[in-house]
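[step 3/7] inverse_fold.run input=structure_tokens len=179
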């Protein structure tokens, strides 16, 4: 049983007491106990892990993706309508694109590594008004090319569509295509 000082009279009061025995002032309960803080961090950690798993359900690493060159010609896709298709009707877009090898062009909007260390490149359309972006996961052997891209560079990629994950259209096993 811990003791705290009464805010009104300064008397020692047990934390389990409802009021100070001397002056009757209500005892202010300590909301942030070590246990509550630990539970909050655990909940945040589970949310973080859950979001990482959700983003990587469709093997975004690119390492396990089939080689794109061995599967034939990719389907040429205009990035704007492609992104709008996923934004408006994910199920229909999946029926048309999921699992397919595509080739599309767009503007580099960002690049980096996800929480699991996978390299990605974010592509947008010319208008950049689509409610979603294309997240292209790049195999490790192409990291140097991606690192040297500048924001706003117009590029063409080839990769396999995995579908929509956390409001991002995911394409795996991406390669930068020389134009």
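[step 3/7] decode complete -> sequence:
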């Amino acid at each position: 049983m811990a003791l705290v000082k009464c805010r009104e009279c300064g008397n020692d009061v047990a934390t389990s007491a409802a009021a100070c025995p001397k002056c009757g002032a209500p005892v202010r309960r300590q909301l942030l106990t070590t246990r509550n803080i630990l539970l909050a961090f655990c909940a945040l950690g589970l949310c973080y892990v859950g979001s990482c798993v959700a983003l990587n359900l469709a093997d975004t690493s690119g390492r396990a993706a089939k080689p794109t060159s061995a599967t034939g010609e990719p389907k040429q896709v205009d990035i704007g309508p492609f992104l709008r298709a996923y934004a408006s009707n994910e199920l229909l877009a999946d029926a048309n694109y999921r699992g397919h090898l595509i080739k599309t062009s767009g503007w580099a909007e960002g690049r980096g590594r996800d929480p699991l260390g996978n390299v990605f490149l974010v592509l947008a359309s010319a208008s950049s008004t689509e409610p979603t972006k294309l997240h292209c996961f790049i195999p490790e052997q192409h990291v140097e090319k991606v690192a040297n891209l500048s924001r706003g560079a117009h590029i063409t990629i080839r990769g396999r569509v995995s579908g929509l994950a956390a409001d991002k259209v995911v394409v795996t096993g991406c390669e930068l295509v020389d134009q």
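[step 4/7] annotate
The helical segments are 34-55, 79-88, 90-97, 143-147.
The chain has two domains: 3-55, 68-177.
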